[in-house]
Amino acid sequence: MRDLRTFTLSGYDKGRGFVAQALWFCVMNTLFMAWCCPARLRVALLRAFGATIGEGVLVRHRVRVLWPWKLTVGDHTWIGEGAWLLNLEPVTLGAHVCVSQEALLCTGSHDHRTTDFRYRNAPIHVGDGAWIAARATVLAGVRVGRHAVVSAGTVLARDLPDLTLHTAEGTRALKEPTP
């Protein structure tokens, strides 16, 4: 039987103190997510809060990032409107990655086998040229390979090799993209 009264944050490091966390939440919820905030300013805000962001990155409005200091984004990557990077642990997006509208990358989970429901978090890595399509979910500890595709509305709970398409029906190999 689960006893949630015994849950603690034991072993979980948010990576910054309370003041930095509170300041980020204020900025994220008032400016960063707003439709009127220019994409370049969103990138600058992420960098100011410790994210490592490459050149030519596009971050649309309504994007949520839990902890910017646990985010690395490669060159020319797009993060679509309403995407949620729930990065209790590091999220790394390679170059030329597309995270489409309302996609969820969730590094957090709980151990259902324990009574205290302790955290079972793990990082997410998305390889160069990969596409996380609209409303797709990538779960904790998953590696998405180079040029792999997680199709719209699917849940990815296991690593996806390079050049592989993940759909509700299963996975299949893809060909190398053409220029």
Give the topology string: H per helix, E per strand: HHEEEEEEEEEEEEEEEEE
- How many β-strands, per DSSP? 17
User: Structural class, judged by helices and strands?
Assistant: alpha/beta
Q: Mind telling me the C-alpha Rg? A: 17 Å
Helix content: 10-25%
Task: Give the percentage of residues in beta strands.
Answer: 15-25%
Question: What strand order characterises the main sheet?
Answer: 2-5-8-11-14-16-17
Description:
The chain is of the alpha/beta class. The protein contains two helices and 17 strands. It has helices at 18-32, 39-48; strands at 52-53, 58-59, 64-65, 71-73, 78-79, 84-86, 91-93, 98-99, 104-106, 124-126, 131-132, 137-139, 143-144, 149-150, 155-156, 164-167, 170-173. The strands form three sheets. It has a seven-stranded mixed sheet. It has a five-stranded parallel sheet with strand order 1-4-7-10-13, with helices on one face. Strands 3-6-9-12-15 form a five-stranded parallel sheet, with no helix packed on it. A hairpin with a 2-residue loop joins strand 16 (164-167) and strand 17. The longest helix has 15 residues, at 18-32. It is globular, with a radius of gyration of 17 Å. 33% of the residues are buried. The mean pLDDT is 96. Pfam families: Hexapep. Belongs to the transferase hexapeptide repeat family. Keywords: Transferase.
